[in-house]
């Protein structure tokens, strides 16, 4: 395994771009890479950042795979009306440049429903789970995929409901995050590390904010350094994670955004209006 090489990355990206979905297919613009003849330091950094984003796009399954239904988050009033209808607190304040989201994960018969809420940058694309006769597949995700910036919801069922979340050892959070980033297999990452844990409690619900980093292993044989922030909680019968990440090169620019997303994460199981949940399930 080798670190990014300009020549090898250029060859791989040019081949991968031929399979990338166009904007008309899934609203994700195809990444285009170019180098100026002057070969300045800025152009090199821009090239590497775009190449890393393209590598992330492919590794997270955004290339050569059918996309679930997509939708943008609604305006604050609409989302808050939805939250209130489920009997949970509304979003108090929407940061500038962000859109709100509130969606039910688990409408299919194969999952127990959860109400998931968070905010995301207005120019990001939201992807929702797909539904068919076999149940529900996929997850709730938002991102600027071509640049490798993502926020993804994950349910970790193995531990069951975890009481006293903030008193749990670091291993629980590290394992939860490794499960989150490795849904496509254990061979897609290496050198994962949780660098900081910050406990918080909102409206009686415990969350652990986790800073982490890892190396993403691409199918082209090189590594992409990624840095992220996640929020971990436990409601119902499992542990829930909203994890956000960018490439290391972009993290200085995106850190504030990623922390805002993670801090805004809420997840509910009990306390939902049962009739509304049944109505949503019946609609699917």
Q: Which structural class matches the secondary elements?
A: alpha+beta
Strand order of the largest sheet: 3-6-7-11-10-9-8
Shape: globular
Which residues sit in consecutive blocks of at least 5 with pLDDT less than 50? 1-48, 58-73, 273-281
Biggest sheet details: 7 strands, antiparallel
Query: What is the mean predicted local confidence, pLDDT?
Result: 78
Order of helices and strands: HHHHEEEEEEEHEEEEHEH
Proportion of β residues? 25-35%
Number of strands: 12
- Give the termini distance in whole angstroms: 44 Å
Query: Number of helical runs?
Result: 7
Helix content bin = 25-40%
Overall radius of gyration: 19 Å
Oligomer: single chain
Walk me through this protein's architecture.
With 284 residues, this protein is α+β, with helices and mostly antiparallel strands. It has helices spanning 6-16, 23-26, 41-59, 76-85, 170-181, 248-264, 274-283, and strands at residues 98-105, 114-121, 125-127, 130-132, 135-137, 141-144, 149-156, 189-202, 205-217, 223-235, 238-247, 266-268. The strands form 3 sheets. A 7-stranded antiparallel sheet has the order 3-6-7-11-10-9-8, sandwiched between helices. Strands 1-2-12 form a 3-stranded antiparallel sheet. A hairpin with a 2-residue loop joins β4 and β5. α1 (6-16) crosses α3. It starts with 5 loop residues before the first helix and ends with a helix. The relative contact order is 0.16. Residues 1-48, 58-73 and 273-281 have low confidence and may be disordered.
């Amino acid at each position: 395994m080798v670190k990014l090489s300009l020549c090898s990355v250029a060859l791989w990206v040019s081949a991968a771009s031929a399979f990338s979905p166009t904007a008309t297919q899934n609203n994700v613009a195809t990444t285009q890479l170019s180098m100026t003849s002057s070969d300045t330091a800025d152009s090199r950094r821009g090239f590497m950042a775009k190449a890393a984003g393209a590598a992330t796009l492919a590794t997270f399954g955004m290339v050569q795979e059918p996309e679930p239904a997509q939708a943008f988050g609604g305006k604050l009033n609409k989302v808050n009306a939805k939250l209130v209808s489920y009997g949970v607190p509304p979003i108090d304040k929407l940061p500038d440049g962000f859109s709100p989201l509130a969606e039910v994960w688990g409408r299919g018969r194969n999952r127990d429903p959860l109400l998931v809420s968070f905010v995301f940058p207005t120019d990001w694309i939201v992807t929702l789970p797909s539904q068919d006769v076999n149940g529900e597949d996929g997850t709730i995700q938002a991102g600027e995929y071509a640049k490798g910036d993502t926020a993804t919801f994950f349910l970790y069922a193995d531990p069951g409901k975890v009481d006293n979340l903030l008193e749990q050892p670091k291993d629980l959070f590290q394992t939860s995050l490794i499960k989150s980033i490795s849904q496509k297999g254990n061979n897609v990452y290496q050198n994962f590390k949780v660098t900081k844990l910050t406990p918080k409690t909102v409206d009686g619900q415990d969350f652990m904010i986790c800073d982490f980093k890892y190396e993403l292993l691409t199918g082209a044989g090189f590594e992409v350094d990624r840095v992220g922030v996640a929020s971990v909680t436990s409601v119902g019968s499992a542990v829930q994670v909203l994890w956000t990440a960018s490439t290391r090169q972009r993290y200085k620019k995106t850190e504030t955004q990623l922390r805002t997303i993670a801090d805004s994460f809420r997840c509910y199981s009990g306390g939902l209006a049962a009739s509304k949940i049944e109505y949503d399930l019946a609609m699917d």
